User: Fold this.
Amino acid sequence: MPAGQAQKEFFVNEALCVLDALNARAVTASQPAPPAVPAAGSSYRITANATGAWAGQDGRIAVMIGGEWRFIAPPEGLLLFDRAAGSLIIYRSQWEPATAIAAPSGGTVVDIEARATLTSLIAALETMGVLDASPA
Assistant:
């Protein structure tokens, strides 16, 4: 009998748990080690130099399902909200955070400052996929 054919409900239930965890497009936090007492259904973005049960899973998303960790490779363009950091992160061959935009300050030439701030804003929006970086 092919793998997964007996007791299909286990595979379906696990798939539904993964979909439920990723549907929110949010993770509890980004960290290199699992929490001491994870809640069922909680999800985390695994950062570099992962340890413990997450060793070797850098960059993946960990989801607690049935008392065990399941690891999901992020697809290109996945946008997540990190609840602990309160910020967005996007996956483009690696995880990239939204960049902070410096507000113009001081100076005597307002036009130069305004252009620099707008350039930073456009670059940040392109990084997050809000604007298309390709020429029209």
